[in-house]
Amino acid sequence: MKSLIIAFAVIAVAIAKPQRGLAPAAPAPPGSEAYAETLAQDFNIEPDGSYQSSYQTSNGIAAQESGTLKQTGNPEAPTVVVASGSFSYTSPEGEQIQVNYVADDEGGYQPQGAHLPTPPPIPPAIARALEYLQSLPQRK
After folding, report:
1. Residue 69 bridge partners (DSSP)
2. 95/110 Cα distance (integer angstroms)
3. pLDDT at 103
4. Inter-residue contact 66 to 51 (CB < 8 Å)
5. Of 37, 75, 113, 120, which sees the most CB atoms within 10 A?
6. Is the model more confident about 38 or about 4?
7. Cβ-based neighbours of 40, under 8 Å, separated by 6 or more
């Protein structure tokens, strides 16, 4: 019995011993690229559930969003939030990035921005084939 108590005591001491590992990251010094201060911040929630939010930081990041509650008619999720907004920042290459978005229950998150990739155009022959297939009667 004594050996069991001693074994548990040794395990408890080993677990309680300070662990050696990576030191916590030091905060970025003021003036460095990673350092940013919040210059402006606003958040407003209305009684009807709608909201507006925005912020701007000293390193050029800015964002704004507004949202409203939408009735779905679904008893499992009677209301959803429909949001729209934008954010901008400077890429590591120095390019100004601007993203506008809408997020809802029908289309999900839908970002738009000049830097986002887009699919190539559909070749005319494929477009005609798709139109032809849509004109055929539907099978049941």
Report:
1. 81
2. 22
3. 94
4. yes
5. 113
6. 38
7. 54, 55, 56
The pTM for the full model equals 0.63
Helices (H), the chain: 2-16, 124-135
Contact 109, 103 (CB under 8 A): yes
Angle at 33 between CA 115 and CA 117, to 5 degrees: 10
What pLDDT score was predicted for residue 75? 83
Q: Would the pLDDT of 70 be above 80?
A: yes
Residue 38 β-bridge partners: 57
In terms of Cα–Cα distance, which of 34, 138, 8, 41 is closest to 92? 34
Pick the closest to residue 57 from 13, 101, 87 (CA basis).
87
Instruction: For residues 48 and 81, give the distance between their C-alpha atoms in angstroms, rounded to a whole number.
Output: 12
If 0-12 CB within 10 Å is exposed, 13-18 middle and 19+ buried, where does residue 44 land?
exposed
Report the candidate in 75, 66, 25 with the shortest Cα–Cα distance to residue 42. 66
Contact 100, 124 (CB under 8 A): no
Distance CA 121, CA 24 (A): 49
